[in-house]
């Protein structure tokens, strides 16, 4: 029986790399990766490089449209799109949101706007020339290989800012361990086969993917810092959201004049101070998805990876 072949777009990145690892572990042999830059992957995986100029729109919208067109033209049967939980986020509290939530009329930033446009293209393409599609919406991705979330929090610790808190920490937030998100992609791809019993519940659908364990925002970075052996000697300084937004406005303005990148933005304040959690019941039912790695275990694995790759910066290695 012919097995599926896989093209992992973004295969050299955090999520793509973990998806390839899972495919290799289950014995898949016919796969390739496409990305902006090359990174070391298993020799079995062929890597193709592309270099678009306008990253936001060309990758998220036009790039996705190109993938859909080529998939339809060449008889590809399955397309799993990695979206984001933020495609329905407009900057206000959003607790236990599910897939019935509409796209906002105005997104909080260009990234989420272009991701929602791409998601619509993917879901609208379901059924065209035998192509079956689905979109996954992970929230707060983190884990080994992370170039954003874990390094940002660890740099805050190293720079002596772990005692600074934006907001009152009453807002819940959903995080997703990268291995769980990668597993969700494979579950989705398997269920996009028309012969699968769950096919009708998956094709043409979007699914929120999280660890199913929302926590107060600052609990997560503090767990990372604790696992790294860090103990702050300073009393927590909580800055109210309203004050933080004003400080961020002036920081952005001054950095604009000086031609520098601001260390504090209004977008950052909004993300840190807004309640955001997702209902993953749909993924549990249709994809039979269940987070295998807990937040606590994910934190341990993430810090172990960070220490191994940033040994000179780790508290216990100085």
Automatic annotation (TrEMBL):
- Quick check: keyword Membrane in the entry? no
Task: Give the UniProt keywords, A-Z.
Answer: Oxidoreductase
Which segments does the entry list as coiled coil? none
Domain 3-beta hydroxysteroid dehydrogenase/isomerase per the UniProt entry, residue ranges: 52-236
Query: What's a Gene Ontology MF term here?
Result: oxidoreductase activity, acting on the CH-OH group of donors, NAD or NADP as acceptor
> Which GO biological process annotations does it have?
steroid biosynthetic process
**What InterPro entries does the annotation carry?**
3Beta_OHSteriod_DH/Estase, Lipid_A_modif_metabolic_enz, NAD(P)-bd_dom_sf
State the protein's name. Answer: 3-beta hydroxysteroid dehydrogenase/isomerase domain-containing protein
SUPFAM superfamilies for this protein: NAD(P)-binding Rossmann-fold domains (SSF51735)
Q: Its family?
A: Belongs to the 3-beta-HSD family.
